[in-house]
Amino acid sequence: MSTCASSVGPGIPPPARVTNGLPGFHAAWYGQSGYMALCPGTRATATVAYHNSGSLGWVQGRMGQAAYLGTWREEPGQDQPSVLGGDGTRGSPQTGWPRFDRLAAQPAAYVGPVQVAWFRFDIQAPQTPGTYRLGIRPLVEGARWLEDFGVFWEVTVLHPDGSAPRRTPSGPANVFYDVGDGVSAQDIHEVHEGVARAAAFISDSVGGVLKRPVAVRIYIGMDEVVCCLANANGFRIVVNHRTWRAPPAAGPDTWSAPAERSEIAGHEFVHVWQGHQGTVGCLNGPIWLVEGMPESISYRAVVRDGLIRQTALDAFEKEWVSSARSVPLRDLETSFPNDVHPYNVSWLAVDRVLAPGSQGALRAYCERVGNGVPWRTAFAQAFGESVDSFYSRFEAYRAQFVR
Q1: CB-based contact 177:141 (threshold 8 Å)
Q2: Count of CB atoms within 10 A of residue 243's CB?
Q3: CA-CA 20 to 30 A from 54: which of 154, 329, 334, 362?
């Protein structure tokens, strides 16, 4: 039986030349140790070097003069906690960082101009296999952030048997995050992961892009009725809402709560994508199709990437569709009552009947609706059958599905 063994890849050498003598505080990236493939729960030490390219020295322990490494974009975000390391607060693991958002302090008492500081920090692999990233940027605490060279750490968490998981994709372009006070490292990661997986699946299997920047707001709310809400400009996740904290689909017989939260974030991202197809998007139209489309795409993404087993999803959907109050799918064009389990029925309609194979027709439909074609006409053009014909075919399929 195979056992897991951690490893570290080759280091990245410094550039051939760097700038020197810039007025004030400045830094230039100067090489780093290699990316890691770690067994779940194990620790490793990372090193990154920065050359003092400014005219002022860095003085350890002195506010306004001491250099640190801080967390940065894209994940987890500026001054945000990471699932890879921290001081034990904001959901970060205790790995000896000076703070949850400060990876390391300058190692020497003084780092003068043209000198190099080798910052070292410990990382702890999460328990869930996947690809994790940690954005890094140097700063002089209390003075300014130094140059952003796009430095990030990438950690692959292996399966317990030592095999590598499917690589988690990087986040899509044009998506920017606004994280509120007190949001945990795990919540930040799950939202990023869900968006990245859904966006990658769309790119690979559906098509269509975001046409302008969008904002994702992650925050602790007060009395919001729903946990998650999206439009063409972005979406919000209220992390203390019961649907996010304890998602109904998660359980011992289905899949984990983190996997379901990633699916929820992916679902909301698909809504944003819908709003960017054609001129005005396809967020208007029959509710079952507006909601069934992101249910299908986001679940396909997390199944493809191994977060959820297809057999578990099939069993879950069958149970929920079977136990719902049954109403014709056409009734879900304009209403979405909870007791009919509308998300499950909508998933079934889109995923298994409307677009069971390639999902490029979903984009074709959205583009037509987004360009002003009435939804029933766009439906017939994109899917090759009338809405009424589809409704008849769906009801026959559902009757067999719930047996």
Answers
A1: no
A2: 14
A3: 154
Tens-place pLDDT, residues 37-84: 999 999 999 999 999 999 999 999 999 999 999 999 989 999 999 999
Interval 24-37: pLDDT, tens: 999 999 999 999 99
Q: Where are the domains of the chain?
A: 7-157, 175-401
**Cα 176 from chain centre:** 11
Global pTM value: 0.95
- Per the CB < 8 A criterion, the answer to whether 75 and 137 are in contact is no
pLDDT at 223 over 90: no
Distance, CA of 310 to CA of 319 (rounded, Å): 14
Q: Residue 297's closest CA among 353, 351, 376, 371?
A: 351
Distance of CA 277 to the CA centre of its chain: 21
Domain 7-157 sits in CATH 3.90.470.20: no
CB neighbour list of residue 80: distance below 8 Å, 6 or more residues apart: 71, 101, 179, 183, 185, 188
Asked if 247 contacts 226 with a C-beta cutoff of 8 angstroms, the reply is no
pLDDT (tens digit per residue) in 337-364: 999 999 999 999 999 999 998 899 999 9
Contacts of 330 (CB under 8 A, 6+ apart): 391
Joined tokens for residue 178: 């606004």
Residue 95, C-beta contacts closer than 8 angstroms, at least 6 positions apart: 43, 84, 85, 86, 121, 122, 123, 124
